[in-house]
């Protein structure tokens, strides 16, 4: 059943011994929501803890500053930024098969909880902020930091198209309530791991241009991944690099598979249809971002890609 | 004489044949202010043109979309985002020695104009927005794009400490009035030139770490600059790279001078005093960012720097 922010606030106010769940591979939004809600509920004198099947990533450790996790049998279970029960992880689902309340912002939310406050906006932290305001909690700087984190991370620091005027205004409120936004943004958006820097260096060495610089292609080999020590999350943004180059319409990333062959990711800037390009190799996707697989040696796969891509300019 | 936004609006409304001046090496703020003000004044039926001693950079060409520059003898001269008359460039100052109105946000404004509206905030575009609102102009999407550009570029897309709650709220207003923020942000913050990518690749090859990864050092040689074809503006952000690496407290950039020797830039993350470190080599600066010059061969200069830096950890 869908409910409003006010009803979610009333439910939370009516319960104690509250467990807050985040989704696996946690991001700034699910964690900012969880620690923000924990701080708000504790300020009302409630017994609360957070749980996630994965460890709190080092870069988000500030969210938990000063928070001691308590052990207790929960009376009320809340999931934040969790669109599907499968995202909780098996161990969590087994221990807590019933979720009483879900606060989320994904259109795709499966409404698996008893009650769901489904917010239409950029981040779950905006939804949690509304619920916290309904509870009459005053926002401390630590709490403001938590909620700012989700708003900033889910919108690429207010850059992406999902940012709304409301996101901007709620973030402004949090800045007034003491969010350390400049420090947070440096930590969240300007910090790269040594492994990421290392793999980026190797990948940049592979850049090749075609069609007068309108096509750029890079390759991430198994050897680069091994040598740099980068993990999957650190490889994330790399396929975005070719399209960020001035004048490039089609950006192609070849990622060598463990068993050989290549996973191809294509991003386009303004007019070329990435999904049609990938369809030529049995893949698909969207107009600006698509993918396919090519099981061929490097030079051959590269030549096929560049020839096909040139037809889309 | 300092005046208010309302008085600036009244002055502009009382005049026609208005020339708007931007500062040299123009950025998004001075250009967004100029084209925004031009669009607002033209919507009131006035004859207006903009002028800058340097050409409109390609990345900002959208600001002038649909704008035909007219030739006329100005009756009223306005400077936007220009803190000092010297920033107009000699040719402009010679042609227009008298500036009637300055709309700016730099504390250091030299009050060279007849009247100055000095705004206390992140960008001149915020000040221009206030003046435009006082004039009762309705904001079109094109105008919103211009003003959003200055707010976003002067704050690193709302990341830096100069961002205020007011900046966020004014940007929210512009988003509602049709600013194409997602496209603009991709263009302004995610695009790198091929030359910049090339020099970055070469510079990343020079990274070395010391003191358990707490010190990172890179070098930009004359040869890299020549080979990549990167110009000064494209080299700008590079000295920021070492400090963005996770765990690095002291980031050092060695920039080879044309005549030999190195210009050193030091950035620190949390506790090390960059100005004291540079003082050891006769330089200086601030706690988090400082510089010096070392006239020694590469290996020797590097060793001296790493040894000195280690003492500040
Ligand atoms: Mn989210
Ligand atoms: Mn400015």
TrEMBL record, chains A, B:
It comes from the Bacteria. One of its GO terms (molecular function) is nucleic acid binding. InterPro entries: DDH_dom (IPR001667), DHH_sf (IPR038763), DHHA1_dom (IPR003156), Oligoribo/pAp-PDE_c-di-AMP_PDE (IPR051319). Pfam families: DHH, DHHA1. Residues 17-151 form the DDH domain. Residues 227-312 form the DHHA1 domain. This is Bifunctional oligoribonuclease/PAP phosphatase NrnA. It comes from Merdimmobilis hominis.
């Amino acid at each position: 059943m869908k409910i409003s922010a006010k009803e979610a606030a009333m439910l939370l106010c009516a319960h104690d011994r509250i467990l807050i769940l985040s989704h696996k591979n946690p991001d700034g939004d699910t964690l900012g929501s969880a620690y923000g809600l924990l701080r708000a509920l504790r300020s009302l004198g409630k017994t609360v803890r957070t749980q996630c099947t994965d460890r709190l990533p080092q870069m988000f450790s500030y969210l938990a500053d000063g928070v001691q996790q308590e052990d207790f049998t929960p009376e009320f279970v809340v999931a934040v930024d969790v669109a599907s029960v499968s995202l909780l992880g098996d161990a969590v689902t087994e221990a807590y098969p019933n979720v009483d309340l879900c606060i989320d912002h994904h259109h795709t939310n499966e409404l698996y909880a008893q009650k769901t406050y489904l917010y239409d906006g950029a981040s779950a932290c905006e939804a949690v902020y509304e619920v916290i305001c309904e509870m009459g909690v005053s926002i401390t700087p630590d709490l403001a930091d938590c909620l700012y984190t989700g708003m900033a991370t889910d919108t690429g620091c207010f850059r992406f198209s999902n940012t709304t005027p409301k996101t901007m205004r709620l973030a402004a409120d949090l800045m007034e309530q003491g969010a350390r936004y400049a420090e947070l943004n440096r930590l969240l958006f300007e910090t790269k791991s040594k492994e990421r820097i290392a793999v980026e260096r190797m990948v940049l060495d592979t850049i090749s241009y075609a069609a007068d610089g309108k096509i750029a292609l890079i390759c991430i080999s198994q050897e680069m991944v091994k040598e740099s020590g980068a993990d999957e999350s650190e490889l994330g943004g790399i396929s975005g690099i070719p399209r960020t180059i001035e004048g490039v319409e089609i950006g192609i990333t070849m990622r060598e598979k463990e068993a050989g062959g290549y996973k191809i990711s294509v991003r386009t800037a303004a007019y070329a249809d990435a999904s049609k390009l990938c369809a030529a190799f049995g893949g698909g996707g969207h107009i600006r971002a698509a993918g396919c697989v090519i099981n061929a040696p490097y030079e051959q796969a590269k030549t096929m890609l560049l020839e096909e891509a040139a037809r889309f300019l």
